[in-house]
Amino acid sequence: MYIQVEDCKLFLKYLAMKAPRYKVVYEFLKKNIITGNYVEGHLLPSENELCAKFEVTRPTVRQALNALVQEKYIYKHRGKGSIVANQQRTLGLLSFKGFTEVLSNSEQTIETRILESKHLQDWPEDFFYPIPKNLRNSGCYFLKRLRCVNQEPVMLEYTWILDINLDGFDAISFENNSLFGTLASKFHVEVTSVDQQIKAIQADKQQAHMLQMEEKSALLHIYRKYGTSRNDFFLFSSLLCNTSNYAIGNVFS
Amino acid sequence: MYIQVEDCKLFLKYLAMKAPRYKVVYEFLKKNIITGNYVEGHLLPSENELCAKFEVTRPTVRQALNALVQEKYIYKHRGKGSIVANQQRTLGLLSFKGFTEVLSNSEQTIETRILESKHLQDWPEDFFYPIPKNLRNSGCYFLKRLRCVNQEPVMLEYTWILDINLDGFDAISFENNSLFGTLASKFHVEVTSVDQQIKAIQADKQQAHMLQMEEKSALLHIYRKYGTSRNDFFLFSSLLCNTSNYAIGNVFS
DNA sequence: ATAAGCAACTTGTATATACAAGTTGAGGAT
DNA sequence: ATCCTCAACTTGTATATACAAGTTGCTTAT
Questions:
Q1: Residues in chain A within 8 Å Cβ distance of B201
Q2: B246 part of a folded domain
Q3: Nearest nucleotide to A51 by CA–C1' distance?
Q4: How much is the ipTM here?
Q5: Are A44 and A159 members of one domain?
Q6: pLDDT in tens, B55-98
């Protein structure tokens, strides 16, 4: 029932980066859950064992574990320990992580097709989120992608990125990289929040064609405003999901 | 910008109940956010101020604040403070709270119509969530409700409650009370988690009729398993939402 | 008038210690 | 063989202290 801790390479990697210690522990544990080293339903090492292993105090370990609890990787049981939760086999898009990051953890074959490369344009007239006048003048970058799981188109994604003249932003294409990941690594901008609304709509002719379903089929429409670590920088997205074979789901506790 | 702390009655109430101190702080702050004493977009008292006010240490205050952050009542900004988040004008059902509790905070007129009163039955054969054999024999209570906002039917809700012979459970009707609230107050059972999946489906004849929409219109179908403070007690629900006028939404950060 | 520096404040991270409540398994009694 | 007790373990709650990083407003220099 007790699983041996393996592979400290990630541990050392993050130490070198001077990450907060609780994040080192968190990433290590998360990685081992995702790779299957920690088996669903089984106990993680106890808090005290992790303290000894990572040479940190218990509140630090607890902060790491609480982050895993929040993301539903584990649940805790007083007196027993921390147990690896069952992993969901869904797109899990109710969290604010971008599509690439969520699915990079899954065993499914994913593909992103760029339907319209990032280009500068005006804000749409009837935009789903009110754009203040002062931001409207800046224009926005627009990006249109089709997301496929196991060669099946499951999501049409429209993305609007406020244009705030980030150095070098014009030259980034996002063809091979995650939008959120690129913002973080190249521009040091983290996506920190999402405000989202969900509706069920009927697929119009174009949407049905792109998602290979019948016209007027039911689509999940998720529209989002992402906040970032910069107060002057927002992104918006409109996601149209074919949920015939892939539900959208998560766990709250 | 700085809001005065008011009304310590709730504070004293929970102290009398010997609740964990962080929960006292949490409930106090939450209540004041919900009632509007702490205004959206404005700062809460700082952590140190709250420490002085409640005579607790900072980690205790932080635990309360972190719970509020998790539930999106506030967000935190290093150097600035804790800010009351914008409250959503939607059904907000992506959290695990029951319908009654969510909407009790809103200005809209809500109504629940009981379509089928709670009654004991067998588990459905094709249930959306696998019911283990040993639980199957217990049977379940079934409840069917129609939720209306401003007289408009917006949600069909089917609820299945595992029958574990809770004393007095038979006699409870839920006609005028929240299911979750009743479980908490009468049976000391808290709903602690939800595992949910969302799809878009086409309304069949019955669903369309109940929700006053055209057959084959797009419906949001949310199906959930609720975990509770008792390891042997679960509830399930299937929600069919007409999102024409009321989106489902929330904020993550 | 504007910019820079800095003190006082804010939240974020971390160590250290202590006690409470729940779990588990071993040992002893029946 | 079964049941009870209890020690050793688990996580939950809390205090106390310290330093780091970001924010804000005031003061001083240009």
A1: 200, 218, 243
A2: no
A3: C15
A4: 0.58
A5: no
A6: 899 999 999 999 988 877 888 888 889 988 876 434 444 554 45
